[in-house]
């Protein structure tokens, strides 16, 4: 009851924060948030959960319920998942949609969720093949936006520069390792029974699929595809010590996909073309949109540094001014008070009336009760 009272008192504040988050977003973002809330209300019915979620055994032949791949994503059974979904989608509308556009964001949303449904089903099919337990095919219900949240974390990692989070014995952990860190935490929470097993599977699927799409297949306005920058390679998601191991493991599969034409080669080739104006160097690994993104990031960092420097200079000038005022007051001439002269009261009145000399009066009170001693004359 106490928790409910605290929550009821904070409802106006939460409403204000959500209004600020979703105030200037597109209708697509608002539609996703509304559908997620409706899905949470419907999740109180077990029949609805069984119908709308992806069940690995029913997604495969002969049932082949493909329509569940378009309905599982808005079904959440926990309130904290609904809040995380709304916040993530709102931030996506604030950060990613202005850069990509509404159509590209919708395409990213659909492809990620559709791929998460099939890849998660493939995971449970492999587990069933190893264990022979049919519960992994018919008792598992895949639902929610965990895969899309992982995809958004990968997209944000592509857009924003690297920031150091913590230092570990395995190396530095930056925001580029955030998808891997959340995956490890999800596995730990699943091991202790605090999280469903579908959550780490969906998170891992969303991370892999979104990286592959952004790395090799996303089309840009200038006609290029993907982001072949070195700092966006898959081994950069891991700590520094583990990167050579991951690079060695993923090297052969990547070469096979390159031969099949599904991925682009990551090696850089330098083409020199002599022209009347000089030498032109073309590096396929560095695309114009990558250069523009890095330029924007560098300009933002420079602007923040300049603003911080100007603020420090302003504070220093203000403190210097205050110190100078204090010194000036301390060096002011001392004022000597003028006492009334009983022998010449007119002079005292004239000195008091003078505008250049401040007037001060002093009154002496004899607090002694005994008369002063007298001396005898011999």
Keywords:
378 residues; mainly alpha; two-stranded antiparallel ribbon; two-stranded antiparallel sheet; Rhomboid-like_sf
Shape: globular
Going across the biggest sheet, name each strand in turn. Answer: 1-2
Quaternary organisation of the protein chains: single chain
Give the amount of beta strand, in percent. Answer: 5-15%
Low-confidence stretches: 269-286, 352-370
Alpha-carbon distance between the two ends: 102 Å
Radius of gyration: 37 Å
The biggest beta sheet, please? 2 strands, antiparallel
Helical coverage, percent range? 55-70%
Order of helices and strands: HHHHHHHHHHEEHHHEEHH
Helices, by number, come to: 15
Mean pLDDT: 76
Alpha-beta content class: mainly alpha
β-strand number: 4
Pfam family, one: DUF1751
Keywords: Membrane, Transmembrane, Transmembrane helix
Protein name: Transmembrane protein 115
Membrane topology: Multi-pass membrane protein
Structure write-up:
InterPro entries: Rhomboid-like_sf, TMEM115/Pdh1/Rbl19. This protein is mostly helical. Among the domains are: 19-144, no CATH class; 149-267, no CATH class. It has 15 helices and 4 strands. It has helices at 2-9, 11-22, 27-42, 46-52, 56-59, 79-95, 97-100, 102-131, 135-138, 146-159, 178-191, 198-217, 243-260, 288-330, 345-353, and strands spanning 164-168, 171-174, 271-275, 278-282. A two-stranded antiparallel sheet has the order 1-2. Strands 3-4 form a two-stranded antiparallel ribbon. Strand 1 (164-168) and strand 2 form a beta hairpin. The chain is globular, with a radius of gyration of 37 Å. The termini are far apart. Mean pLDDT is 76; it is low at 269-286 and 352-370.
């Amino acid at each position: 009851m106490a928790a409910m009272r605290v929550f009821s008192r904070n409802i106006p504040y939460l409403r204000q924060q959500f209004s600020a988050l979703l105030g200037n977003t597109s209708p697509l973002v608002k539609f996703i948030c509304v559908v997620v809330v409706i899905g949470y209300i419907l999740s109180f019915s077990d029949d609805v959960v069984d119908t709308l979620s992806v069940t690995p055994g029913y997604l495969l032949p002969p049932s082949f319920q493909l329509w569940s791949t378009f309905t599982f994503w808005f079904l959440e059974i926990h309130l904290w998942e609904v809040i995380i979904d709304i916040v993530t989608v709102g931030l996506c509308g604030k950060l990613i949609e202005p850069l990509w556009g509404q159509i590209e964001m919708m395409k990213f949303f659909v492809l990620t969720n559709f791929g998460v449904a099939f890849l998660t089903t493939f995971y449970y099919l492999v587990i069933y093949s190893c264990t022979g337990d049919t519960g992994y095919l018919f008792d598992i219900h895949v639902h929610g936006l965990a895969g899309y949240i992982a995809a958004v974390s990968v997209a944000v990692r592509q857009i924003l520069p690297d920031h150091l989070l913590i230092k570990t014995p395995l190396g530095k952990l930056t925001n580029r390792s955030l998808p891997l860190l959340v995956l490890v935490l999800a596995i730990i929470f699943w091991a202790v029974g605090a999280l469903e097993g579908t959550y780490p599977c969906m998170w891992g699927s969303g991370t892999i699929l979104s990286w592959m799409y952004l790395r090799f297949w996303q089309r840009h306005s200038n006609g290029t595809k993907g982001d072949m920058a070195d700092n966006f390679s898959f081994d950069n998601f891991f700590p520094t010590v583990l990167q050579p191991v991951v690079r060695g493991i993923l090297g052969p599969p990547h070469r096979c996909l390159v031969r099949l034409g599904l991925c682009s080669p990551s090696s850089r080739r330098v083409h020199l073309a002599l022209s009347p104006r000089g030498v032109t160097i073309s590096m396929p690994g560095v695309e114009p949109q990558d250069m523009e993104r890095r330029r924007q990031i560098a300009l933002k960092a420079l602007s923040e540094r300049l603003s911080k420097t100007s603020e420090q200079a302003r504070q220093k000038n203000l403190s210097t001014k205050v110190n100078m005022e204090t010194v000036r007051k301390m060096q002011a001439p001392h004022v000597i008070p003028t006492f009334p002269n009983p022998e010449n009261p007119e002079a005292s009145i004239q000195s008091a009336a003078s505008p250049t000399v401040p007037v001060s009066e002093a009154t002496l009170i004899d607090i002694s009760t005994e008369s002063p001693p007298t001396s005898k004359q011999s």
